[in-house]
C-alpha cells in the first residue's frame, strides 16, 4: 500500500493530543472536511470580532492592564488559529505550472 501524498493531506483547524497537529487524508468531500470548513469559518469570523473589540479597547484610555493582557492573550490564540487556517489553505492551493515546463 502506498503512503498518502502531501496533496491528499489537509491540516485541520484544531489540534490533537499534546498540542500536535491533526491531518485529514482524503479528497475533501466528506463530513470531516465540511466540519473543518465550518470551524475555519467560525475561527476567521471570531478573529474579525476580536480585532474590533481590540480597537475599541485600545481607544479606551481607562482600559486596565488586566483587560489589555486578556485581549493580548485572546489575540495570540486567534492568530494561531488564523495562521493554521492559512497554512492549511495554502498547502491545498494548486501549484501553477510555468509555461514550457511539465511534470
TrEMBL record:
The protein's name in its UniProt record: Uncharacterized protein
Amino acid at each position: 500500500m502506498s503512503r498518502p501524498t502531501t496533496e491528499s493531506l489537509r491540516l485541520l483547524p484544531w489540534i490533537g493530543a499534546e498540542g500536535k497537529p491533526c491531518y485529514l487524508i482524503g479528497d475533501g468531500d466528506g463530513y470531516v472536511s465540511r466540519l473543518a470548513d465550518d470551524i475555519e469559518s467560525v475561527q476567521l469570523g471570531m478573529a474579525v470580532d476580536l480585532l474590533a473589540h481590540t480597537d475599541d479597547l485600545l481607544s479606551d484610555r481607562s482600559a486596565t492592564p488586566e483587560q489589555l493582557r486578556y485581549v493580548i492573550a485572546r489575540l495570540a490564540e486567534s492568530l494561531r488559529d488564523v495562521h493554521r487556517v492559512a497554512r492549511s489553505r495554502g498547502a491545498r492551493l494548486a501549484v501553477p505550472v510555468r509555461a514550457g515546463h511539465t511534470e
